[in-house]
Amino acid sequence: MDVKMNGNLPKAELHLHIEGTLEPELMFALAERNGIKLPYKDTEAIRAAYQFTNLQSFLDIYYAGAGVLQTSRDFYDLTWAYLERCKADNVVHTEIFFDPQTHTERGIDFETVLEGIDGALSDAKEKLGITSHIIMSFLRHLSEESAMETLEMALPYKDRMIGVGLDSSEAGFPPEMFERVFAKARKAGFIPMAHAGEEGPPEYIHQALELLKVVRIDHGVRAIEDPKLMERLIAERMPLTVCPLSNVKLKVFETLADHNILDMLDQGACVTVNSDDPAYFGGYMNANFEGLVNELGMTETQARRLAANSFEASFLPEAEKKAWMAKALGNGGA
Ligand SMILES: Nc1ncnc2[nH]cnc12
Ligand SMILES: [Zn+2]
Questions:
Q1: Is 276 annotated as a binding residue?
Q2: DSSP state, 276?
Q3: FRET label pair with 99: which of 43, 60, 112, 152, CA 20 to 30 Å apart?
């Protein structure tokens, strides 16, 4: 297919960590603004440090980088820069994660973080025509108690967030550890989702479905190792928010040519394309689509189905979902 065509397809992004959109240039600017000394000489040195061997090697650098984010204005600027990238890539709707504990653990108020992110998202609706939702994600390498405290902290702001997620180091931190936190979050009206089957085994996807009662799986690429699980995911049209460039950078797959996203799509799974932490993984939404065309031979039909899936799997109202799906499939003047 014509690679450029991807740019014109309307798309929704459903798996994006706002802290993972911190480009080295902005990291330096914020460090200067906040009087913080970075352990890098320049932006080239930062980019050179982005050689990851697995998820943990990335997370160590990613959590350190987030230290430059201090004020609401910092979170606003970070989010606004990402939204401009959305505009450029024709991402018309985005559902973004933020990790409150990454910030509250170093003394930044929950409200400071949310205020900045939400402010930029509100302005983007008006100025860029981009719709959005916020999902707060618990760090699974921290305790259940810490996640509970975070949930309590979030309750007064419930109306500004649509759901809860579970992220950070996966192996050794199974979803079952957070069963009670998710039960409480669901009761408070948060829609549940979780990272599962990125590095962790298919068993973690089962746990996320059964114990956390998630409506979306983030990543989920290891589901393919368990045919019965794949059957269930396909039958239920359970969305898997897949992140191709991320998976290659973190060595889940050796190259994009080895990725299973199109196999899963062709089997009937509701897979979607997402950029995860684009500042660290080498590209935003369209770069992921382009990689799939160039290295995996994605056809136009497959690209349109992936774009339509992204709206199907979103938390947009049904009528909007349907209208965007028709456009993505080329039935509505895309
Ligand atoms: N790919 C990823 N997996 C788990 N936690 C994350 N936090 C940010 N990106 C992540
Ligand atoms: Zn992620």
A1: yes
A2: B
A3: 43
Angle (CA) 15 159 185, round 5°: 65
Q: Note the pLDDT tens digit of each residue in 28-45.
A: 999 999 999 999 999 999
Model confidence band, residue 334 (pLDDT cutoffs 50, 70, 90):
very low
Residues 6+ apart with CB under 8 A from 132: 93, 94, 95, 96, 121, 124, 125
CATH of 5-328, one of 3.30.43.10, 3.30.1490.20, 3.20.20.140, 3.40.50.2000: 3.20.20.140
Catalytic residue among 23, 95, 170, 198: 198
The CA distance from 320 to 145, in Å, is: 38
From the CA of 326, how far away is ligand 1's center (Å)?
31
Taking the CA of residue 192 as centre, how many other CA atoms within 13 Å lie in the half-sphere pointing to its CB?
Answer: 22
Backbone angles phi, psi at 139, to 5 degrees: -85, 120
Is the ipTM beyond the 0.95 threshold? Answer: yes
Extents of the domains making up the chain: 5-328
In single-letter form, the type of residue at position 284 comes to: Y
State pLDDT tens for residues 289-325: 999 999 999 999 999 999 999 999 999 999 999 999 9
Q: Which of 174, 167, 232 is nearest to 194 (CA)?
A: 167
Integer Cα distance of 287 and 232 in angstroms: 30
What are the structure tokens assigned to 75, written together?
Answer: 């979170």
- What contacts 47, CB < 8 A, 6 or more positions away? 24
CA 235 to chain centre: 24
Residue 168 beta carbon below 6 angstroms from any ligand 1 atom: yes
